[in-house]
Design brief:
about 675 residues, alpha/beta, TIM Barrel, ten-stranded mixed β-sheet, 23 helices, about 40% helix, binds pyridoxal-5'-phosphate, decarboxylase
Length: about 675
């Protein structure tokens, strides 16, 4: 059952239960008192008319992660005797969901947890949420104009602990101007470009040439300017961010050494200082390998991370005799990734299994026994005009000859000759195509040849898998022969990083996990785009596999797949490719139910996904206008007798119903 390595990436939240379904413990409990069966949950949600695909969001998981992060820092601070505390901020860009952010702020009150904004709209979200929180930080990053700065300074007047972080040199004169205009003294941070660089996908923000932050000479100039303005007391925070999903703890250590000394130097130069904000980067284990360095995993734990941050800072502060600052971090991925499960169903599969190929052959023979003859009985091939005197060459029916020889390859394949059989099969398939082009093979004969090739390839693979090492050519065949499961989903909308940066997410069936999966599949989405597919999954070893082990679909039974750890970045970065819209989102909280030992929950919010009308509006179509022009056309058609009145009204009703409905397909079944 650990084909999907659930324990590795999912613990303590996800596991497989005795019924063979994925189970979830939103509070991460050890005793399972909060355990829910994901399949039951989906069925219960669907009974409430929430259609697939959907995102199930578990706010308890975010809380658990926040408490864990705080706990790790508290432990590290206690262990090293550090003279400051930790207070995190959640980067709003990671997931803008209103209920999620409200929940983070509400729960975060217990430990001064704040927000980070990276744009003007995010600033509005943060200001609206943090107003009453005294100590919680509002870290204001990103490009800023005058109105951005004014909003921050006014929010400060309101009582929000807002810090303007300078990311560009020309932000300082603007800030000084706004500060004078409003007569408000800002709390200022500087974002530093560290020389420490992280090489993963998400490392573009780091290093001297990173897109964001001030270089060391620029930071020194900021200090001089503020000194001249008599505002060194305003400079209180140093921020840096070496990139997201840092796989190797060595990068964190290195950045912390550089950042800690930079912090201390700023304090020594007379800046008031008080906070260090170490950015995001705390990674998670997407493939459950606990440390392969592909970027899909990390070689450190959250505690290890906290220890290294605190230790480096303490060391620099002691050496330089600087007061130990409040430590902030901007972890988003590590806090919210686990909290969302993307649930989608399989609509159908391609006819690509061996059984499909054999069935096709049988059907072809049955339908055309007379015309084609049975290829199985066509051996040895009949020869027309048999040679009688050694002078006249033998002639064969090329199609019949090819097919019966091809069939022999299939019938005699075994462990000793599978590679040879594969080579022959490729050649015969090509010859069948050539004969077809010359008009010597009928369409049905060509179908027989192709079905034979498919059946042979499956057998070849079965034998190849018994070998200690799969021949190189045949590993590519494994992907080519995989079934294609068509899923009710747009990759571009809901799993964009699988396409954009080849990111690996854990994807697995949510049921039948006590049954051996018998099929290898790739996933194809609903879009008309050849990139709309997923071919990267957790593999049997630390390298990703191009195929996902799945079960054969059963007639009339929904087959659910889940994509896990996608709780950050995916939803908001998704696009409307082919006009597949936003998904239904259901917020579920674990809640003990009287009389039940485990498994109580409450559905707190159902946020309906976009309807076709809403999606069409984003590209300037108004449903009402579309209805109106269709109505006019239908009237005309009825007048001219091209359409009955009943058909016209059915057409209009259908159109109208579509406008109000979800952009995805109806599921195969309940
Ligand atoms: N802070 C900044 C400035 C970022 O650019 C990012 C994302 O890259 C984050 C925080 C969040 O990082 P992570 O999701 O790795 O925690």
């Amino acid at each position: 059952a650990d084909l999907y390595r659930v324990e590795g990436w999912g613990s303590p939240y996800f596991s497989i239960n005795a019924r063979g379904n994925v189970a979830i413990r939103p509070k991460g409990s050890e005793d399972g008192s909060d355990e829910l069966d994901l399949l039951e949950l989906i069925q219960a949600v669907r009974k409430r008319n929430v259609e697939l695909p959907m995102i199930l969001r578990f706010p308890d998981i975010v809380q658990h992660r926040m408490a864990q992060l705080q706990g790790c820092f508290d432990t590290a601070i206690g262990k090293y005797g550090y003279q400051g505390h930790f207070q995190g901020v959640f980067p709003v860009k990671c997931n803008h969901d209103r209920y999620l952010i409200e929940d983070i702020v509400e729960y975060g009150r217990n430990f001064r947890f704040g927000l980070e904004a990276g744009s003007k709209p995010e600033l509005l979200i943060a200001i609206a949420n943090l107003r009453e929180n005294d100590d919680a930080l509002l870290v204001c990053n990103g490009y800023k104009d005058e109105i951005y700065m004014e909003s921050v300074l006014l929010a400060r007047q309101l009582g929000t602990n807002a810090v303007i972080v300078l990311e560009q040199v020309d932000e300082l004169p603007l800030l000084l101007h706004v500060s004078r205009k409003l007569d408000v003294r800002p709390v200022i941070g500087v974002r530093a470009k560290l020389s420490t660089k992280h090489d993963g996908h998400w490392g573009g923000t780091s290093g001297d040439k990173g897109k964001f932050g001030l270089t060391i000479p620029e930071i020194v100039k900021v200090v001089y300017t503020l000194r001249e303005e008599g505002m060194l007391d305003c400079l209180q925070l140093l921020h840096y961010h070496v990139g997201s999903q840092v796989a190797d703890i060595a990068i964190i250590k290195e950045a912390m050494r550089e950042g800690s000394h930079l912090y201390c130097e700023l304090a020594t130069m007379g800046a008031a200082m008080g906070y260090i904000d170490v950015g995001g980067g705390l990674g998670i284990d997407y493939d459950g390998t606990k440390g392969n360095r592909s970027g899909a995993s990390t070689n450190y734990s959250m505690q290890n991370y906290a220890n290294d941050v605190v230790a480096a800072l303490l060391d620099a502060c002691v050496v330089k005799g600087v007061r130990q600052p409040v430590i902030a971090s901007e972890s988003g991925r590590a806090l919210a990734s686990h909290s969302a499960v993307l649930v989608f169903d399989v609509l159908n599969d391609s006819e690509n299994a061996e059984s499909d190929a054999l069935r096709n052959l049988a059907v072809l023979e049955e339908h055309h026994a007379a015309g084609l003859g049975s290829i199985q009985q066509g051996w040895p091939p009949k020869q027309d005009g048999l040679a009688t005197n050694g002078l006249q060459p033998a002639r064969r029916d090329p199609g019949q000859y090819l097919l019966s020889t091809f069939y022999q390859v299939f019938a005699t394949i075994d462990q000793t000759n599978f590679q040879e059989a594969f080579n022959d099969s490729k050649q015969f398939k090509q010859e069948a195509a050539n004969l077809f082009k010359l008009g010597c093979l009928s369409l049905e004969q060509r179908a027989q040849a192709e079905s034979l090739h498919t059946a042979i390839c499956h057998r070849v693979l079965a034998y190849a898998r018994n070998e200690p090492q799969m021949p190189a050519e045949l590993s590519a065949l494994s992907e080519a022969m995989a079934s294609v499961y068509h899923v009710n989903l747009s990759v571009f909308r809901s799993a964009v990083d699988t396409w954009a940066i080849d990111q690996l997410f854990p994807i697995m069936p949510l049921q039948r996990l006590s049954e051996e999966p018998t099929t290898m599949a790739t996933l194809a989405d609903l879009t008309c785009d050849s990139d709309g597919k997923i071919t990267r999954f957790i593999g049997p070893d630390s390298t990703p596999s191009s195929v996902l082990p799945v079960h054969e679909l059963r007639q009339g039974e929904a087959y659910y797949l889940g994509m896990f750890l996608g709780g950050v970045y995916q939803e908001v970065m998704g696009s409307l490719h082919n006009l597949f819209g936003g998904l239904n989102v259901v917020h579920i909280r674990a809640k003990p139910k009287p009389g039940r030992a485990a498994g109580g929950y409450a559905i707190e919010h159902v946020v309906k996904g976009q309807t076709m009308e809403e999606v069409l509006r984003t590209v300037q179509y108004e449903g009402e206008d579309m209805m109106e022009s269709l109505r006019n056309e239908a009237e005309e058609a009825v007048d001219e007798g091209r359409l009955t009145l009943e058909d016209a009204s059915a057409l209009l009703m259908n159109f109208n119903r579509s406008l109000k409905s979800y952009t995805y397909l109806k599921s195969r079944s309940q």
